[in-house]
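@channel anyone free to eyeball this complex?
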Amino acid sequence: MWFTTRGTSFGYPGKLATDTGRGMRRKTAQQTRIARPVQAVAVVLAVGAVTAAAGCSGGSHTTTASSSTSAVPASTAPVASAPASNTAWNPCSISDADIAAAGLNSATKQVGALGVKFPGWDICAWLSNSWYQLNVYSTNSHTYDEVVQNTTLFHDPRPVTVGGRAAMLLPHVNESDGCTIAFDAVDPVQLAVSAKLSAETFGDPCTEVTRIAGVLLKDLPASKK
Amino acid sequence: MSELDVWKQLAEEVAQGNLSLKVHREGLDAAVKDLQDYIDHLDTLGPALETVATVTGLGGFQIGVLLAQKFTEKGSGDESIKQRVKELQVEARAIQDTLRKAAIAYAETDQQYADVLAERTQL
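replying in thread with the prediction:
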């Protein structure tokens, strides 16, 4: 068993332009001004949008009851002191060119969870310019079988073949816009597609993640078998 | 009343012709762009929020199960951080929409005044 908690603050470096000329003109005598709400929003932006403190499973695709072994204390270790890679293969080693070829924006690369690395895991993520985002996980905390049999996170696993390599397609529980494809390797690898927060229209996440896996297949670690 | 309600109300006032916004085109474009940058920036939180969407591993005792449920609720439930970030994006979109419509309303009204003045000048 392992568990990590963390608190994270996000700051928005941008600013909202409030220079809207001479302000609102209203026909009625009542003076409703647009400036006040704009200022209120600007304050929200300036302060920083979100402060989060949440329990973390060290990657959403992580654990099952059967995989419990020992507790890991809260991890707040600075990224700089962390090893370059926690597992046999680091997802962040995928080249920018291949990421772009997969339809993702290489400039949006994120290491870990906002820079936080979890013991036993390597995580890298990218956003697309479309409706989805991609999280790639590598773990030595769980076996391939534990991953694909995780009914807390996935339902109706489907064996598939991508570029001649066996994999398991895993639709997300309680998230119809999310789908993971898992590959067996020395440390199992998972590619997870989910909807961007601002997405209003969605495609089929399992189709998308299968397509992406086909493009990135040459970057993945070799099969264990 | 939430921020979103305020902006919806303002949009309604614009639609009814009670409210318009005089704004230079560059100012409007800059405001809309900054709001879009804000929405895009919030999107970058998405992958990290996925990693806290579901929390498990607190053991099989009742207290562990409840705690896991509680953290999962904070990660991806109805009142979760994920929902809150989405709400901020919806608010930003509502502001964009209201600013655009209010600016258009002003421009149309201004043109109507110009037309009336032109007619009177010709008389």
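from a first look: The first strand of chain B starts at residue 19 and ends at 22.
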